[in-house]
Write a structure and sequence with these properties.
The complex is a heterodimer of chains A (about 200) and B (about 240). With about 200 residues, chain A is mostly beta strands. Chain A has no helices and 18 strands. Chain B has about 240 residues and is mostly beta strands. In chain B, strands 2, 3, 5, 6, 7, 10 and 11 form a 7-stranded antiparallel beta sheet that branches. A 5-stranded antiparallel beta sheet of chain B has the order 4-1-12-8-9, with no helix packed on it. In chain B, strands 16, 17, 19 and 20 form a 4-stranded antiparallel beta sheet that branches.
């Protein structure tokens, strides 16, 4: 590259690259009440916090204006957004901002919270069932500051039984994309990337 | 974080492909993450579709590594592993559901297996960013999403049900297989999933691009706006 900044972590993964469009940052967080539709700005993704409530599943659906929580309970959420969609408002006398070749903001330290990815499960890498007839485990540690991308699911008509993709059981968050019927349990792979992220502070 | 590279010479025993007590071998065979304990197994079960590693121990080991990575780029994270101490062979088993073969279908020859482990102390190089409260918001040890491209597409389920596929969306560097480096995040869910045999949203990867397909049934006709983001979280 003839200009700009690149930084890589100790195993070569990109953490900073002004030749790309943008970094992402935590732009909002809060609680998401039942039946409420969360609006999203362009480039803004909602991630769910999964409380340690045994057997609780989550039902989210796309409606006009955003994503609606039909889980029957309030859940925690964070929004991640591409920084280039944010208005530069860097008023501090310290910190870092970078811009791409078009002069658009691509990174700013003018955020109070950061995040890091703790696990990435590419599409079709998770199974709704494992050999012991349980959904695949995606997280086993503390749930403090841990959030999950919404990976979508394949089947669900009734909130009480077979929705959504994550379920908490026995100290683990499991991928629960499966269909329960009177004839057995049918598992589905994840059709999109599932990320586990940790809010840093 | 440091990495520990093992070379597995593949062998087979029943369903198992890789290295175990009576088949295959491993080099160097010592687990840096566990103080040099011996690797006693690293194999894929081709019938039950799982991957396991055995580390010699006299009690259950903690998940003192971040992940193991195959030559195909796929990573199995320690936090997702089922852990079990098997006393009669004095080993700790780390177990993941995994399919297809991590050895790309091979049953002989050698394959590399990388374990990233340990916690990063103060790095001698790299970048670290703090907020005004002196809290770290970016660190050299991080894995983050760097956006390559983003946007939205309007996809229409026709009356009576059916599918609609977007035009190819260009992503420099994307291939059909480098899922561990470049991913596609969808911010929307598409039609409600009401049929076990219909996936509302699908992503099809190609070399240099991907497409998004929406599928709906009778009564789900209409236009769905699907926001997407292609992100780089591995090597560029």
């Amino acid at each position: 590259m003839a200009f700009g900044v690149q930084a890589f972590n100790s195993v070569g993964d990109t953490i900073f690259d002004t030749t790309q469009l943008s970094q992402t940052q935590v732009t909002a967080s809060g609680t998401w009440a039942n039946t409420v539709t969360l609006a999203r700005a362009t480039g803004e993704m909602i991630c769910l916090g999964i409380p340690n409530t045994t057997a609780r599943r989550y039902k989210m659906r796309q409606v006009t204006g955003g994503i609606r929580n039909d889980s029957g309970v309030t859940v925690n959420y964070v929004k991640l957004s591409a920084i280039n969609e944010q208005t530069p408002s860097f008023a501090a006398s310290y910190g870092i901002e970078t811009f791409d070749a078009s002069g658009n903001l691509s990174y700013s330290s003018n955020y109070t919270q950061g995040f890091k990815i703790r696990a990435i499960y590419p599409e079709y890498s998770l199974s709704g069932l494992d050999s012991t007839a349980n959904p695949s485990t995606v997280w086993t540690s503390s749930l403090t500051n841990i959030y999950f991308t919404m990976g979508g699911c394949d089947y669900g008509t009734n909130i009480a039984d077979n929705f959504d993709i994550f379920v908490y059981e026995s100290g683990k968050v499991k991928y629960a994309n499966s269909l329960f019927t009177g004839f057995g349990t049918y598992a589905f792979n994840n059709k999109r990337v599932v990320q586990v992220i940790e809010i840093r502070n | 974080m440091p990495t520990d590279t093992q070379t597995v010479t593949l062998g087979t025993s029943g369903n198992f492909v890789g290295y175990g007590a009576t088949y295959g071998s491993i080099s160097d065979g010592t687990a840096n993450a566990f103080g040099g304990a011996a690797w006693e197994g690293a194999f894929w079960d081709s019938v039950n579709k799982n991957f396991r590693i055995y580390i010699n121990s006299t009690s259950v080991l903690a998940r003192d590594f971040e992940y193991i990575q195959f030559e195909n780029g796929d990573k199995l994270y320690a936090q997702a592993a089922a852990v079990q101490y098997i006393s009669y062979i004095t080993t700790t088993q780390f177990y993941w559901s995994y399919d297809p073969s991590p050895w790309d279908g091979a049953t002989s020859g050698t394959k590399s297996l990388i374990m990233e482990y340990g916690t990063l102390s103060e790095a001698a190089y790299g970048i670290k960013v703090f907020n005004s409260s002196s809290q770290s918001i970016l660190d050299t040890s991080d894995i983050v999403n760097t956006v390559i491209t983003q946007g939205s597409v309007n996809l229409t389920v026709p009356s009576g049900g059916g599918t609609d596929t977007s035009s190819a969306i260009s992503v420099a560097g994307m291939t059909t297989t480098n899922k561990s480096d470049i991913g596609v995040l969808l911010f929307d869910l598409g039609p409600p999933p009401v049929d076990a045999f219909v996936t509302p949203l699908n992503i099809t990867r190609s070399n240099g691009s991907f497409t998004i397909t929406v599928t709906g049934l009778t009564g789900q006709d209409g236009t769905y706006t699907i926001n997407y983001q292609a992100v780089l979280y591995g090597e560029s």
